Amino acid sequence: MVSTHPEAPVLLLAFAAVLLLAVLLSSLAHRSILSTAVVFLLAGILLGPDTTGVLEITADSEIVAGLAELALFTVLFTDGMRVGFADLRAAWRLPGRALGWGLPLTLGITAVLAHYVAGLDWPEALLIGAVLAPTDPVFAAALVGNVGVPRRLRHLLNVESGINDGLALPFVILFLTVVEGSDDLHLDELGTELLLGLVIGVAVPWLALQLEKGRFFSASTKYEPLNGVAIGLLVLALGLITHANLFLAAFAAGITVATFGERQRESFEHFGELIAELFKLAALLVFGALISVKFLSEINWTGWLFAVLAIVVARPLALAVSFLGSKLSRTEQFAAMWFGPKGFASVVYGLLVLQAGVTAGDEVFHLVALTVVLSILAHSSTDVLVARIFNPAMTPQWSERQRAASADRREHRGDEDQPPP
After folding, report:
1. 394 in the Ramachandran plot: left (φ > 0), alpha (ψ -120 to 50) or beta?
2. Which long-range contacts (C-beta less than 8 Å, at least 24 apart) are formed by 266-271?
3. Can you give the pTM of this predicted structure?
4. Cα(421)–Cα(416) distance, integer angstroms
5. Of residues 409 and 36, more confidently modeled
6. N or C terminus of the chain: which is more exposed, having fewer CB within 10 Å?
7. 106 close to 314: Cβ distance less than 8 angstroms
């Protein structure tokens, strides 16, 4: 019999049940303020050890670490495929502003808030700034996926969120090393890990794509989507064997495929996004299980104030500076400033900090968890509302059916000449 972690079967059962519920509610979620991410987060909280105890998992569980790393690897690989060099050349100015100015400013402003509001020392404050700097458009899906929203705004948010996970990673690693209190930051080892990750992430997919272009190799239509899976697994395996930075390797591999293998990118895109979504939702379920009412009550009022300010001040202020002199309309600027959800990457980076065992790790994780929870609730419940600013005709299907039913009733009453409500 295959050995498993004691909590794995129950976790699998819980994930399967919540996934089925989320699938059945997905149509409603797509046209309302309900979010699939919120469903998994709340399910995790409900099933967690401090609530009902169905999921007996803790932050130091091996399954938590393994799932978090594998999930982030998958997400960074698929994110990288969305931002090939051709995409960046086509429209790079606005994403460049958001990444070149917005990302470091968001990190810096968040760190200042963490130091002066939450009372963290500067190393921990800079670490939490790096953890909370990335954004995730999944929690603003109605905005990013709505064709009524200006294309340049959707492109800006897609490219920014696809790249900033990878750009924030070296800062998370560096500041985590500083927080660990080592006199030697081991920058040579860190540099070697990052360089190996970059080399593996570029070389493996490039060689694989060159092989397929040869006269003896060609993927069939049925197996073509598995090309991306094979490349990703090779990068993951080589990264583990050589102790390279897995996350940078994944991100670099995705960009390389997007740049040199447009056909492979298109064939893998839908399949890859589904895989990444599964890992994201599983990680959110586990993340929710580590949170409870008791967990949140352990955070004092300054921590709550920090979390709110990190959402409503840090990114809006950073992007307001970044977009000075840009041609974005005020409405577009507002949408870009508001939709900086603290999402999946922050969840995983927060788990990595917690599992590092640093002195302030628990406090940092509490603040990160609270900020992510508030962000998911706020951003995933307002994306539809903001999207309607750009496209007022966008009406939930349940409302359209309600209007149609009202019209039928008026017709039967013989008052069809009256205007619809």
Report:
1. beta
2. 267/224, 267/225, 267/227, 267/228, 268/81, 268/224, 268/225, 268/227, 268/228, 268/229, 269/81, 271/225, 271/228, 271/229
3. 0.80
4. 12
5. 36
6. N
7. yes
